[in-house]
Design brief:
The complex is a heterodimer. Chain A is mainly beta. Chain A is 7% helix and 27% strand. Chain B is mainly β. The chains are: A mainly beta, B mainly beta.
Chain lengths: 244, 270
């Protein structure tokens, strides 16, 4: 059996400290993810055994920083596919698979690390991704933020999905602006979403720490929760690298 | 490079079908986890790009989950001590939260303990089983009950292992984990994590006055051995040892976390 001896586990999921309301009413303020989403919970006492459990979310309007109160599967690092998420868009193929329908081995395997520091404020093109091979999980990052982030050009997304046939796309945020044309009319909108979910290639984001991976190829894993009809789920993404 | 090529993945998280309230007002019925808890969601539309999303929340009036919010204990999850039982009288002050444990706590080599040989039998003394039927705290002589799990039943556990344990038995016929065996798991075997299928009885003495309540949870979490449950398919693992992954979300202060637990069986001959 393979062993984790001599390997190092690198966490790639963004840390999201819970905004926590204790049973005594005190509030501990948490952090937010790259998109300014919090993780709001409230303690409750389980009457069966007097343990404390966390209710996910808060009553609407009670948390000024998150007046919606409740949470989707898109808080923090998460993974998504098409059904239930963008299969309401025109122009996508029939038969897209949900994250609960693709094989488990879609979510782990060999990944290539793509450092795009040299594409400051520009489009990511195929020539920037020469280390990507068929069947790869692709992990993109850069040290840039805001308008300096490189962006995934729509044609590049389709080249990755249909030309190279990658297995999964993982994106560090901030670092990579991975979607464009969000407000264009369908079917011209959101080419990265379309390229990936239209080809049953999961997208996992926002990731962190990819820049700490010094090996060009690593083992990557981010398996969704086993919930049918949940179009996107929170994940704990990791890389396993050689320790030496 | 680390690789799982050739390994067989066995999904240990029960498949939950969400009960979902669609934006058009229709409701699609779901199922429950092995403990009978549903997973209710409300669909919404993100105006930024017209995509859909699902909220982990039962809208007002939901017939299945009128409480609205659900906890971190729906479906398979992993729990640590801090934030969960750290308020109990007598709880270990050194208990950690899930977020304070190394990631390697939740992944690595695991011993598979499918206790199919521990068939229930009629007890001769109420002390032989920790629970009784319905509201009875104890069972009676002659009732058929599960067997006490002893170290001799767990001979394949190595020091530092993650342990995956289940049996094919149900209800009060499930074998049960006593204090002395858990003490052995913690002190002698120094297990890292315990993953439990529904075929094991371990949640008993829940309302006994502290510090004697919930002894198994108290002992394991007090020793910073997280518990992952409810798991399924442990009985379908053919190998005696597997590589296990069941990592918590990276949400510090979250006392328990939803997980996707998977065991990987090595190819034959490796």
């Amino acid at each position: 059996m393979v062993s984790l001896e001599g390997k190092k586990v690198v966490n790639l999921s963004q840390e999201l400290i819970a905004h926590l309301t204790r049973v005594d009413g005190t509030v501990e303020v948490g952090t937010t993810d790259a998109y300014d989403f919090p993780w709001v919970v409230e303690e409750t006492v389980n009457s069966e055994d007097l343990t404390i459990e966390h209710l996910v979310g808060a009553p609407m309007g009670t948390i000024p920083a998150w007046p919606y109160g409740i949470h989707s599967g898109h808080m923090g690092s998460h993974i998504q596919l098409g059904p239930g998420h963008n299969d309401n868009w025109t122009g996508l193929p029939e038969g897209m698979l949900g994250i609960w329908e693709v094989p488990l081995d879609t979510y782990y395997g060999e990944a290539v690390v793509c450092n795009l520091d040299h594409v400051k404020g520009g489009p990511i093109l195929p020539e920037h991704l020469e280390n990507v091979r068929e069947g790869d999980i692709v992990l993109m990052h850069s040290s840039h933020a805001g308008d300096d982030q490189p962006w995934i050009e729509g044609d590049t997304a389709f080249w990755l999905a249909e030309g190279v046939k990658i297995k999964m796309l993982g994106v560090q945020v901030p670092g990579i602006s991975w979607e464009t044309k969000m407000h264009d009319p369908e079917p011209e909108n959101c080419p990265t979403h379309r390229a990936m979910t239209g080809n049953n290639i999961p997208i996992v984001y926002p990731l962190s720490n990819i820049e700490t991976l010094t090996q060009e190829r690593v083992f990557f894993m981010s398996i969704p929760l086993n919930v049918e009809r949940m179009e996107g789920t929170w994940v704990r993404a990791i890389a396993i690298v050689d320790a030496a | 490079m680390f690789s799982l090529d050739g390994y067989k993945a066995v999904d240990l998280s029960p498949r939950i079908k969400a009960r979902i309230h669609r934006v058009d007002g229709t409701i699609e019925e779901g199922n429950t986890d092995p403990y009978g808890k549903p997973w209710v969601m409300k669909e919404g539309i993100f105006p930024g790009d017209n995509s859909l999303f699902t909220l982990y929340w039962a809208p007002p009036g939901d017939e299945v989950w009128p409480q609205g919010r659900m906890t971190s204990h729906n479906g398979s999850h992993v729990q640590g001590g801090k934030g969960h039982i750290s308020h109990w009288v007598g709880a270990s002050p050194d208990m950690k939260g899930l977020w304070e444990m190394p990631l390697e706590t939740f992944m690595g080599e695991a011993a598979v303990c499918n206790l199919a040989d521990l068939a229930p039998r009629a007890i001769t003394d109420p002390a032989e089983y920790p629970r009784g039927e319905t509201w009875n705290l104890k069972s009676k002589e002659g009732e058929v009950r599960g067997v006490e799990i002893l170290p001799e039943h767990l001979g394949n556990i190595q020091k530092g292992d993650i342990v995956l344990m289940t049996s094919p038995f149900e209800g009060l016929e499930r074998p049960w984990l006593p204090r002395r065996t858990v003490e052995w798991l913690i002190d002698d075997r120094q297990i890292r994590m315990l993953g439990l299928g529904v075929g094991i009885e371990w949640q008993y003495d829940l309302r006994v006055p502290a510090p004697d309540n919930s002894p198994i949870r108290r002992m394991l979490l007090g020793a910073n051995v997280p518990i992952a449950h409810p798991l399924v398919n442990i009985e379908n693992i053919e190998a005696d040892r597997v590589l296990y992954f069941g990592l918590p979300l990276n949400f510090p202060k979250f006392e328990a976390s939803f997980i996707r637990a998977v065991a990987f069986e090595a190819p034959e001959g490796s």
